Amino acid sequence: MAWPFIPLVIGDLDELISRWADWLAQAATGRLTHPSTMPERAPQGSWRR
């Protein structure tokens, strides 16, 4: 997985929805690329160490 697991907070899903909408829009227009690093975000604070 390119992103560490992050908790979902019901009522505060704007960032999640925005991120996925952006990825889907990039995929629909052929602009979605593979991540340049794995994971894409620092894993601090997640189960990954």
In brief:
31% of the residues lie in helices and 0% in strands. The protein contains one helix and no strands.
Overall 3D geometry?
flat
SSE order in H/E notation? H
The overall pLDDT average reads 84
* Helix percentage: 25-40%
**Main beta sheet:** none
Counting DSSP E segments of at least 2 residues, the number of strands comes to 0
Low-confidence stretches: none
| Beta-strand content bin | under 5%
Give the termini separation: 14 Å
C-alpha Rg (nearest Å): 13 Å
Count of helical regions: 1
Class from secondary-structure proportions: mainly alpha
What does it look like?
It contains one helix and no strands. It is an all-alpha fold and 49 residues long. The radius of gyration is 13 Å and the shape is flat. The model has no long low-confidence stretch (mean pLDDT 84).
